[in-house]
Amino acid sequence: MMCCLLAAAFWFSHAATVLLFGLISFWALREFITLTPTRQGDHRSLFWVFFLFTPLQYVLVAIDKIPVTRGGVTTDEPLYGLYSVLIPVYAFLFIPARVAIAGDYKRFLERVAKIQTGLVICVYCLSYAPALLYLPLVRSDGTPYTGQNTSAGLLFFFVVMVQLSDVLQYAWDRLFGQHLIAPLINGSRTWEGFLGGAGSTALIGMALSWATPFNAWQAGGMALLISIMAFCGSATMSAIKRDRGVKDYGTLVQGHGGVLDRIDSVCFAAPVFYHVTKFYFT
Predict the structure, then answer these.
(1) Which tens digits make up the pLDDT trace of 97-121?
(2) Nearest by Cα to 154 from 210, 78, 225
(3) pTM for this prediction
(4) What is the pLDDT of residues 141-153, one digit of tens each?
(5) Which H/E stretch holds residue 264?
(6) N or C: lower Cβ tally within 10 Å for the chain?
(7) How far apart are CA 83 and CA 101, in angstroms?
């Protein structure tokens, strides 16, 4: 799956890459909702979640800009304000209202929270990964960052750092791990693995600075940030699985679980990496 994402970023159009992430979001949200059972009164709310808010979020990311006329002058206005509030504002208001209209009040808060949590993690957060393709990048000194596949290179850097972070933390856990971080959540994640993996990811990030608008030190810092958030995502989603009494979110790939098991780190790291990049490098 990750190889497909990288190939899409480099060889396909931006719209095709957004579509690919949208399909992954849809599948991941399906796994999440399947794992957290709902009642009959939730089904119509879920219909709108799957078939309106999920695709609309990615449509807004892909459109990026719309023409706006003011005083007879037409300019392209960015749509960031729309896709950044669609789910956390409008979808979050719609979901409890629609569930309430269905007339089923039993475990109301629990049911609404499950749907909202799945939507924000699987759709909203993940959508910030393809949104990287539309950032008008500049270097830290303010000079434009131009060249072939500049935005695709940033997405490449992000996905590689997330995946390397998971692999390196696992390797450090196996080699040097002694002090468990949260034994009831994950019996193999240790402080040695977390610190060693994050540090190793930062060093590799410095070596891959050529694919980004960052210099070596900035790339290392961004890779470290990605690694920290990737760990947080993995720990959070593991806690949800433990609460539900399951090992994996799905069985799509034998030995690797479902789609959500593979992208939990990406979901948590994507919005943080996007906003830091947007603030300092656009």
Answers:
(1) 999 999 888 989 999 999 999 999 9
(2) 210
(3) 0.90
(4) 778 777 555 778 8
(5) helix 259-281
(6) C
(7) 26
